[in-house]
Structure formats: structure tokens, C-alpha cells
Design brief:
The complex is a heterotrimer of chains A (653), B (325) and C (185). By secondary structure, chain A is an all-alpha fold. Helix content of chain A is 64%, strand content 2%. Chain A is globular, with a radius of gyration of 26 Å. Chain C has a domain of 106 residues: Cytochrome Bc1 Complex, Chain D, domain 2. The longest helix of chain C is centred in the first third of the chain and has 14 residues. The chains are: A mainly alpha (653), B alpha+beta (325), C mainly alpha (185).
Chain lengths: 653, 325, 185
């Protein structure tokens, strides 16, 4: 073995440095595009598809999978509405109905709402921030696979008659070993583990990308409002998900090995479950809502032809909503007999959180007032959002009051409230956002006429389906009932809700038909069909695999409006290997050149190993010990250092 | 016979102090929220319909996209102030209502203990003299105008006691004791329902609340304290034998007979109740036949098993049960 | 073909896999309304005339044997009907222990059902007529679980009595000692 010769090593490194090819004034245009494509493309075929680390591919998978779960959860809702259309019906028995609403709630909350927001963010954020990739691309791939396996496990269990029937919130002791025999509740609890790990991984990816991978010059004060919303949401996920993971682990432990966390007869406490679950559960709904406010900000800006009014106020509203959301959870527990003085704190906090949201709404309306609104389909969805979400927000203010909540808690009034805020506040902006970014993702425009018909159908169908539920609740209909008696005045609201639900279902089908038809036959889209201002519209539709030929430099909040002819760029990133530019957190000054990982199968293999560990631990506690071994091996292989030679330049990893 | 449930399970019943306070506060909240909503819609419509020429609007096409209408800043502050003041006012109104509810509930004169089971209500009236303690199920009688405190416990999972026309709800949590005080203000019959998902037959865990003027309430209590009526004819005697020697006695108590089970509802004065199976169906001979013959087909999953009585046994048992007034 | 279609095909395929359902989770909330009071069939006891093989397993066995809801209902009934008065929570007292592997009258599910329904010498009362057959079979399912006889995933891991005994799901599966050579399982 030759002794280490530092000079020879330096000379080798100097030779290698000269061989590195970088983009610049002499390597640009089509030649640059070819070189970059060669470096950034993944291998073709099935293995390459499974091994991808391209954020756009992963984002598209998230969105499609989440929309499939939306359809499945929605189908369950239609079956429930058929059962409830008339009193004392027997289309669906009691036990099966309990499974239906458990699956509907769990699918919508854990398998649709949060993942679709994450998926859109994973797709958009690097493009919007002017960089080539997310941070931690393999973790990103792992998070998708964990989500997919959790969803498949839950739905597989459902079709095999082991689906959970304890409600999406699984209160103990009903979900404990004594009153939920068999493995149904364990399936639910492990689905939580899968989706919680997936969400945490995606949140880490987003925080790192947003803070460290922005284009030079994009200071925090110049960042698009959607990126701010996702930053707040990702931090909220990191702080709230562990609470539900802890609660579900304690439930699994009670059910699997006979612990007594929630067993009142052995000095456990059933309220512990509720506190842990709702400490997660309340921020969860803001995790679903805040990305939608990001969509609304972007769409309002583009379609009113001016930036959103009072950018700092909107940013502060996002941050304060995110913080306040953690102080509200006891409003789900007003009927549990805790001290009333304590409750009044949560009433106050629940009302306070309406203030930042109200200010955001003012800013959007002021933007419309000051600008020239164009009523194209995404803007229609924003208008539908405002009309609908504000009703939900105001019914939320109503139930923030303890005396009012004690009558309305666990009735259909609550069902009406949360569907108004979730569908009005998240799904409408989501549909608008999908229409808005469809040209960027697929390269074609969605059909305008079908889009407008779809909007009016879902908007009017939604009002018909859910407004009568306010009355059903006030007339005395509790939640989670498979039928109700005749003579209480509940027949009319339920019948109207059922009709409206089918209109909503039809409009979702229409949206999917529109998307599919436009994917194949839509008008090809230019780079910037809407005349928008943010960086993702500077690249082709769909974007090339490497996103940007040169990394752009940003000098304002609306780069494409302020530099319409040619964006300033920085040059010097490698083109022979995957490399991205990392910048400083606040001022976004160029900081580091960071190698980007190559496509790898280890995220998939780790997800499979972890999935096997979780699923088998439903049946035996030994699986935790035994199943940890393949998972550990897979993770070790994933993180095994790739090179032992000295790299020609200092790198972060 | 059946009775008219209508409007007696609604929050608009306005028949108890708690429910009355709810309606007043709800009206206040609704008014304030409606004003806020109208303001939002007016602003929205105004923004959409406002006509301005391209050169004057603060948009990117005119190069003025970084400017805003100077009134907007004032508008933002005013809006924030209005929302804040409105919410503070609503919170104060809510707090005042809460304290009024607490005042009305102070010094209850009567205490009842309700224990929730899957899917029926065990009711016990407490008295200082133990010989006056009364046990019944699924139906509560309360005196008009007198605060009644109901102590809430659970034997299995979390339930919730809710009689909308009288007051708000309170959960029954195993391992904890909660309570609710109701002050009825009208002498009618109300229907309540369990309001926390408690398993397969959560939808059919209802209860009946009968509000009587005080003298009638005392009479009712006296009647309920008597043991079960003795059989007077052969059919009823045959039913008595089945009920006290067969499966019924394993779970049910009929005071004054050997039947002393503690698993299911007390049946001593079963026939004087207005419903069968926790508000599932009105008390009638036909419904009794159906329930005793096959409870699983009416309330699938209920804890009462289908016994499989022979037809003449069924006649006898129903005849006996009907004498339990 | 894009990932969109592959994912949707995968999920549609899974949804189409409507297998008949897991017998462990099936809730049998109905019992036959007629016939409950009809006398039992040939006795499955360990002692029987003829010296040939014991009668085949009762058809009801598979509805209750590894059925989680039946075992859970039996667990509740065990305390409610006061089996604990003699047998405690399986450890025995006036009555024999039910958690061990000694079965005087057989451990087959229909043999235990006969024990409960007919009673046995030395103090086991006859419960026929005091409990329905459905209730008896649920109790049997639970009693068997106390000795670790059904499969583990159908059994609750918590004994719901005071802390002390090992949870039923962690009880080792023990082969019951045959009291005579003709006993099955």
C-alpha cells in the first residue's frame, strides 16, 4: 500500500476540477439542455420508475393517489347518504355503517387531505423557489411509499372485512381491547403510524427545501405566499403528528400486550386519548386549510393582475394561525366535564384564531378591489371558497362558545360546519389550484366549459348537501347514527342532503373526466398561459426534468412581472452530475453547491421493510423486534456512504 | 298508542333553562355572524363588479401593481378592529350565559344517577332514606321547575346524555363522574338520545324524559316504589313462571319476585314506560311481542339475546309484562 | 403508460378482491329464533357408549371458535352471569381453575358447551334454560381462550380483571392432557 501523498492527491484533485463541466455563458441553450437531461434523467423502465427521486414525478404520484382515495371515500359517503335518505331504513346495517363512516373519515383526513396538499407542495415548491430539486429527494420518495402502503393496508383490510368501525377518532374505551374485539382497531392504529411517518418525512423535506434551497435573491420577504403557507404547515406537521403517533402507539400497546393507558379500572384515563388525539386533530385541520390559503393567494394574484394586498399581514396571519392552532384542542372536549374556567380559555383562543383568517380574507378581497379580476375557472373556485368557507368559519365561531357547543356538539351541525370549512376551505381552492397548475404539470389546458360547469355543479350541489345539515343538528339528529326515527322533522334535511351529495359526486366525476380528456386532447399550453408572476411559469410546460437551465436570480416578489424579458441567472452549477444550489436562510445568498442523490431503490425497499414491520406487529408484539432487522438493514444500505475518495470540492454531505 | 315525538328532540323546544339560554345566545351569535357575512359578501361583490379602466387600475398591465388604494390600509385596520371587537363581545356574551346556566343549576333539589350501558340507560333516584331509593331504566321523570342534578357514570364506553329541548349534553365517561343539572320549564314529554358514538346500536340509545308538576311527580315516585304486581290469572301466572325461572331472571330484576339479575334494565314497572328498548319503539302490545320474541331482528347486536320462546310461552310472558305497571 | 394509470389499476384490482371476509371478525348477532329450546344432539362427552369414535364437532363450532366478537362477548358474560363467583377470573376457587390444561370433561368446544348447559357432578350448575345457547357458546369461546386454545389474534390481550394474571393472548398454547385416548384436540 503506497503511503498517502498529499501533493499527489492535490494534483489529482486539481486535474479533476478542470474536468468538471459547468453551465455558463459558453454552455447554454440546447447544448446545455442535452447535458442536463443526461445527468438528471432517471433510468427508463419499471425499476427506474420505482427508483425515481424526481420531485415532479413523486408529486404527481401523490396527487393521483390522493384523488383516487378522494373518490373511494366519496363513494362511501354516497352509500351512507343513501342509507340516511329516509328514516328507519335498512340498506346498510348498523355494523357496516360504522365501518363506512370510519373509513370515510379516515380516508378523507389521512389519505386524501393532507397527502394531496403535500403532493402539490412537493411538485411546486422547487419550481416556485427556483431550484432543481427538493432537499432529501430519497426521503421524499420514501414518504410517498409509506403513504401508499398505509392506504393499501387500510383499504385492503376494509375489503377483507377487517376494516375499522370505531370512528376516525377512535375514542377509547370503545376502541380498546374490551369493546373492539379482533384486529379492526389495530389496522386503524397502524394506518396512523404509516401516514404519520409519511407526513413527517414530507414535512422535513419541505422545511429544508423552503429554508435552504431558494433561488439567490429570494429573501424570505420575497418568497411567494404559497411557500410561506407550506413552511408554516410543515412546521405544524412536525409538532402535531407525534401526538397522534404516541396515542395510536399507546392504543396498539393496550390492545397487543395488555397495557392500561386507557383503562380506567386500572387508573388509566380515557381522556388522555382525547387530549392526545385532539392536540394533533385540531392543528391537522389547519394543516389542511393553510395550504389552501396559499393556493388562494397565488390564484388571486394571478387573476387580479396584482400582488396580494399587504403581504406582511398575510405572512403574519399564516404564522399566527399556525401557532394559535395548537391552543384550541379542548374545544372538541367541551362535553367531558372538565372545569368551566379552563374551557373559557379555549373559547377565547378558538375565537381569536378567526382574526388572522379574517385579515387574510380582507387582503384577498382588497386585492380584488384594487385589481381587475378575470373570472376564469380558478378564480371561480376562489369565489366559491370565500362564499362557502366564511359560512363554515362563522359556524365555527358559534360552536366555540361553550353553552352553544353543549347543544350542538356531536350533532349534524358539526358535520355541516366541518364540511363547510374543509370542502369550502380546502377542496374548492384545491380544485382551482389543480385547474391552474394543470397546464404546467401536463402541458395542456383543462377544458374551460367543462371546468365552469363542474364548478357550478359542485358549488351548488355542496350547498344543497350540507346546508340542511345545520337544521338536522338543531332538530336533534346526533352524529354517527345509521338511522333516525320518523316524526322528528329530520326527513326533509336528510333527503336534501342525499340529493346534494349525489350532485357533488357527479361533479367530481366531471372534474376527473375533464382532467383525463384534457390530458390527451387539451389545448397545448405555453410556458405561462395565465400570465402569472412566479418562477415556475418561467420554464416550459411541462418542465424539463432539471427544472431550470440556469438558476434564476430574484429581485422582487413578482419576478416574471418585473423582469418580463429575461430573468437574471447565476451560472456555475455542474452539468455532468446532479447538483443544486443552496442559499442562506433569510437573505438567500448563494451558499453551497450540493450534490443531489441519484435514483435509488432503497427508499422503496426501506418502505417495504418498514411496512412489513408495522403490518405484522398488528398480529404479534414479536414482530416489532424481528421486523426491525430488515428495516435496519435497508436503512443502513440506503445511508451507506457512496464515495471514500476525497471529493474535488467541499460538499455538505 | 304512540306519541308525538315531534319538536321534543329539537334545540328549539325551549323547555328548560339550559335550552332557553342556548336559544337566546344562538340568536345573538347568529345576528352578529350574519352581519359579518353580509359585509364579506358585499366587499366581494363590490370587488368583482367594480369597473375601472385598464390605465387606472393597480395592475401589472398598467405598471402600477405595487400601489394600492390608500383607503385599503385604513380598511384593513378597521376590519381587524371590527372583527376583534365583535369576537370579544361574543365571548363576553358566551361567558355571561355560562354563568347564568351555572346559577340556575345551583342548589339542585333532586339527584338522579344515570349509568350508561351499551345501549340503555340505568336510572337510580337517590333519596336520603334508603328505602325510598328507586331504580328504573330508559325513562326519567323530573319535577317541573325544580333543578334536578343528574350524576352521570358509565359501565362500559363513553356515552353522552342529551335532551336537546331541556339542556346541553354531558358525556358519561367510564372511570369518571360528570354531572348535569336540568331545570325543566314545561310539563311535557321529551326525547333525548345518546350523543357520543358508543358502538353498534348507538343510533338506538334514546331516552324519554317526562316532566310532571311536583305533586304528580311525587305520586309517580310512590307508585314506582311498590313491588311488581302479583299474577292474577293463569296466563299471567304462567308468564310469571317463565320470567322468574328462565333466561329473563339471569339478567333482569323484577322487584318482589325471585328475578334478580343485574345485567339488563330493571323491569318492575316496565309496562308504565312509554318506550321499549331505550326509545326504540313506543310501548304497545304488538311491539312487546316483537321485542320479546326476537330482539336481534329489531336492534341487531343488542345485548338481549333471542331466546326462542315457544308461542304459548310468548303469550304468557307478554301478558305478564303488561301487568308490570 | 404513466404512473397515474398504474396506481389506479393497482387500487381497482385490490378493491375488486372482495374475498369472503375474515371469519375471525364476523359478528353473528342473530341466533335462530326457533330450536333454541330443542334438546341437544348426541353428547360429545368423553365417555359414551359404543366404543367407537366420538361424535363429530358440532356445526356451531366454527361460528364461535376463533371468533373475536364471540370471545369478547363471552368475556363480558363471564362476569355478568357471575361465573367468577366460583371460578374467579380463571384461577378457580370453589370451582376448578379454567386457565390450566386440565379438563375433566373435555376441552373440545362442544364438550365445554355441554358442561355449561347440562351441569356436571360436584357442583357445576346446569344453565340450560337460564342462558340461551348463543350465550353459552360465547362463554365457551371465552373459557377456551383462558387456556390459550384459540388462535392468538382472536383473543383480547387484556384480561379486564384486576392486574395480576398473564393476558390471555400471551398464554402459551398448551395441549390439554387427554383424560382418555378417544379425546380429540
Amino acid at each position: 500500500m503506497t503511503p498517502y501523498d498529499p501533493r499527489a492527491d492535490e494534483q489529482r484533485l486539481a486535474r479533476e476540477r478542470k474536468k468538471i463541466v459547468r453551465d455558463g455563458p459558453d454552455l447554454t441553450g440546447a447544448r446545455l439542455a442535452t447535458r442536463l437531461e443526461r445527468a438528471w434523467n432517471r433510468p427508463p423502465g419499471l425499476l427506474g420508475w420505482l427508483a425515481t427521486v424526481d420531485h415532479k414525478e413523486i408529486g404527481r404520484r401523490y396527487i393521483v393517489t390522493a384523488l383516487i382515495f378522494l373518490a373511494l371515500g366519496g363513494a362511501l359517503a354516497l352509500v351512507m347518504r343513501l342509507q340516511l335518505a329516509r328514516p328507519d331504513q335498512d340498506l346498510v346495517g348498523a355494523a357496516r355503517f360504522n365501518e363506512l363512516f370510519t373509513m370515510h373519515g379516515s380516508t378523507m383526513m389521512f389519505l386524501f387531505a393532507v397527502p394531496v396538499m403535500e403532493g402539490v407542495a412537493v411538485y411546486l415548491i422547487p419550481l416556485m423557489l427556483g431550484t432543481r430539486s427538493t432537499a432529501f429527494p430519497r426521503l421524499n420518495a420514501f414518504s410517498y411509499y409509506m403513504y401508499l402502503f398505509g392506504g393499501l393496508m387500510l383499504w385492503g383490510a376494509f375489503v377483507l372485512n377487517v376494516g375499522p368501525d370505531i370512528g376516525w377518532f377512535a375514542y377509547t374505551p370503545l376502541s380498546g381491547p374490551q369493546f373492539s374485539p379482533g384486529k379492526r382497531a389495530d389496522v386503524w392504529a397502524q394506518m396512523i403510524t404509516f401516514t404519520e411517518i409519511s407526513a413527517l418525512a414530507a414535512a422535513v423535506v419541505l422545511v429544508a427545501t423552503i429554508l435552504k434551497c431558494r433561488a439567490p435573491g429570494m429573501t424570505l420577504a420575497r418568497m411567494p405566499l404559497y411557500a410561506w403557507a407550506m413552511l408554516v404547515v410543515a412546521v405544524m406537521i412536525i409538532f402535531s403528528m407525534p401526538a397522534v403517533a404516541l396515542a395510536s402507539s399507546m392504543l396498539i400497546s393496550d390492545r397487543l400486550v395488555g397495557t392500561n393507558f386507557f383503562n380506567a379500572w386500572e387508573h388509566g384515563d380515557n381522556l388522555l386519548w382525547q387530549h392526545l388525539f385532539w392536540f394533533f386533530g385540531h392543528p391537522e385541520v389547519y394543516i389542511i386549510f393553510l395550504p389552501a390559503t396559499g393556493f388562494v393567494s397565488v390564484i388571486v394574484e394571478t387573476f387580479c393582475r396584482r400582488p396580494v394586498f399587504a403581504y406582511p399581514v398575510v405572512v403574519l396571519a399564516l404564522i399566527s394561525t399556525g401557532i394559535l392552532a395548537f391552543g384550541l384542542w379542548v374545544h372538541h372536549m367541551f362535553a367531558t366535564g372538565l372545569p368551566r374556567v379552563g374551557y373559557s380559555f379555549y373559547t377565547a383562543a378558538s375565537m381569536t384564531v378567526a382574526i388572522p383568517t379574517g385579515l387574510q380574507i380582507f387582503c384577498w378581497l382588497a386585492t380584488m378591489w384594487d385589481g381587475r379580476p378575470r373570472l376564469q375557472v380558478p378564480m371561480l373556485y376562489v369565489i366559491g371558497f370565500i362564499v362557502t368557507f366564511v359560512i363554515g368559519g362563522l359556524s365555527g365561531v358559534i360552536i366555540a362558545s361553550v353553552p352553544l357547543d353543549l347543544e350542538l356538539h356531536d350533532t349534524y351541525f358539526i358535520v355541516a360546519h366541518f364540511h363547510y370549512v374543509l370542502i369550502g376551505g380546502a377542496v374548492f381552492p384545491l380544485l382551482g389550484a389543480l385547474t391552474y397548475w394543470f397546464p404546467k404539470i401536463t402541458g395542456r389546458m383543462m377544458d374551460d366549459t367543462l371546468g365552469k360547469i363542474g364548478f357550478w355543479m359542485i358549488f351548488l350541489g355542496f350547498q344543497l348537501a350540507f346546508f340542511p345539515m345545520h337544521f338536522a343538528g338543531l332538530l336533534g339528529m346526533p352524529r354517527r347514527v345509521y338511522t333516525y326515527p320518523a316524526g322528528l322533522g329530520l326527513e326533509l334535511p336528510n333527503l336534501l342532503s342525499t340529493i346534494g351529495a349525489f350532485v357533488v359526486g357527479a361533479s367530481v366525476v366531471l372534474f376527473v373526466v375533464n382532467a383525463l380528456w384534457s390530458y390527451f386532447r387539451g389545448v397545448p399550453a405555453p410556458d405561462n398561459p395565465w400570465g402569472a408572476s412566479s418562477l415556475e411559469w418561467a420554464v416550459s410546460s411541462p418542465p424539463p426534468v432539471y427544472n431550470f437551465q440556469h438558476i434564476p436570480v430574484v429581485e422582487s416578489r413578482t419576478p416574471l412581472w418585473d423582469e418580463p424579458d429575461e430573468l437574471p441567472v447565476v451560472t456555475g452549477l455542474r452539468v455532468d452530475e446532479k447538483e443544486m444550489l443552496m442559499t442562506t436562510v433569510v437573505a438567500a445568498a448563494p451558499d453551497l453547491r450540493e450534490p443531489v442523490p441519484l435514483p435509488s431503490l432503497w427508499p422503496l425497499i426501506s418502505a417495504i421493510a418498514t411496512g412489513v414491520l408495522f403490518i405484522s406487529s398488528i398480529f404479534s408484539p414479536w414482530a416489532v423486534a424481528v421486523g426491525a432487522i430488515p428495516a435496519a438493514i435497508a436503512l443502513t444500505a440506503w445511508f451507506w456512504p457512496k464515495e471514500l475518495k476525497r471529493h474535488p470540492e467541499p460538499v455538505l454531505s | 298508542m304512540s306519541f308525538d315525538y315531534q319538536k321534543y328532540q329539537s334545540a328549539f323546544g325551549n323547555a328548560g333553562v339550559g335550552n332557553h339560554q342556548f336559544l337566546v345566545l344562538f340568536a345573538i351569535f347568529l345576528a352578529v355572524c350574519a352581519i359579518m357575512y353580509v359585509a364579506v359578501i358585499l366587499f366581494l361583490v363590490g370587488g368583482l363588479l367594480r369597473r375601472r379602466r385598464a390605465g387606472e387600475a393597480n395592475v401589472v398591465e398598467s405598471g402600477r401593481h405595487l400601489r394600492s388604494d390608500p383607503l385599503m390600509r385604513t380598511g384593513l385596520i378597521a376590519w381587524g378592529a371590527v372583527v376583534g371587537i365583535g369576537l370579544v363581545a361574543l365571548a363576553i356574551a358566551s361567558f355571561i350565559t355560562d354563568r347564568l346556566d351555572a346559577q340556575a343549576a345551583a342548589q339542585p333539589k333532586l339527584t338522579i344517577t344515570v349509568t350508561g350501558n351499551q345501549w340503555w340507560w340505568d336510572v337510580q333516584y337517590n333519596a336520603s332514606d334508603p328505602s325510598k331509593t328507586l331504580r328504573t331504566a330508559n325513562e326519567i321523570h323530573v319535577p317541573l321547575g325544580i333543578p334536578t342534578r343528574i350524576i352521570l357514570r358509565s359501565n362500559d364506553v363513553i356515552h353522552s346524555f342529551w335532551v336537546p329541548s331541556l339542556a346541553g349534553k354531558e358525556d358519561l365517561i367510564p372511570g369518571r363522574e360528570t354531572d348535569i343539572t336540568i331545570v325543566p320549564q314545561r310539563a311535557v314529554i321529551f326525547r333525548g338520545q345518546c350523543a357520543e358514538f358508543c358502538g353498534v346500536q348507538h343510533a338506538h340509545m334514546a331516552l324519554v324524559v317526562d316532566v310532571d308538576p311536583y305533586p304528580e311527580f311525587v305520586n309517580w315516585w310512590q307508585r314506582e316504589l311498590r313491588p311488581a304486581a302479583a299474577p292474577t290469572n293463569p296466563l299471567v301466572l304462567a308468564g310469571y313462571r317463565v320470567a322468574t325461572q328462565r333466561q329473563c331472571a339471569s339478567c333482569h330484576t323484577i322487584a318482589g319476585t325471585p328475578a334478580g339479575g343485574n345485567v339488563g334494565p330493571d323491569l318492575t314497572h316496565f309496562a308504565s314506560r312509554r318506550s321499549i328498548a331505550a326509545g326504540m319503539m313506543p310501548m304497545s302490545e304488538g311491539n312487546l311481542y316483537g321485542w320479546v320474541a326476537d330482539p336481534q331482528s329489531i336492534k341487531p347486536g343488542t345485548k338481549m339475546p333471542t331466546i326462542g320462546l315457544e308461542p304459548d310461552e310468548l303469550h304468557a310472558v307478554v301478558a305478564y309484562l303488561e301487568t308490570l305497571k | 403508460m404513466s404512473s397515474r394509470f398504474r396506481t389506479s389499476l393497482l387500487l381497482i384490482g385490490a378493491a375488486a378482491l372482495l374475498v369472503g371476509g375474515c371469519s375471525r371478525e364476523e359478528r353473528h348477532s342473530r341466533s335462530k329464533p326457533i330450536g333454541e329450546t330443542v334438546g341437544a344432539g348426541p353428547s360429545p362427552d368423553t365417555i359414551f357408549p359404543g366404543g367407537t369414535a366420538p361424535p363429530p364437532l358440532d356445526a356451531r363450532a366454527k361460528l364461535y371458535d376463533n371468533n373475536a366478537p364471540a370471545i369478547a362477548d363471552g368475556q363480558q358474560l363471564f362476569t355478568q352471569i357471575n361465573c367468577v363467583g366460583c371460578h374467579s377470573h380463571g384461577g378457580g376457587g370453589m370451582g376448578p381453575a379454567l386457565m390450566d390444561d386440565e379438563w375433566r370433561y373435555g376441552s373440545r368446544i362442544d364438550q365445554i358447551a355441554t358442561t355449561i348447559a347440562e351441569g356436571r357432578p360436584n357442583g357445576m350448575p346446569a344453565w340450560r334454560g337460564k342462558l340461551t345457547d348463543d350465550q353459552i357458546w360465547k362463554l365457551v369461546a371465552y373459557v377456551r381462550s383462558m387456556s390459550g386454545l384459540p388462535s392468538k389474534d382472536a383473543v383480547s390481550s387484556r384480561s379486564e380483571s384486576m392486574s395480576g394474571p398473564t393476558p390471555n393472548s400471551l398464554t402459551a398454547h398448551s395441549k390439554p392432557q387427554p383424560s382418555d385416548t378417544a379425546q380429540q384436540q
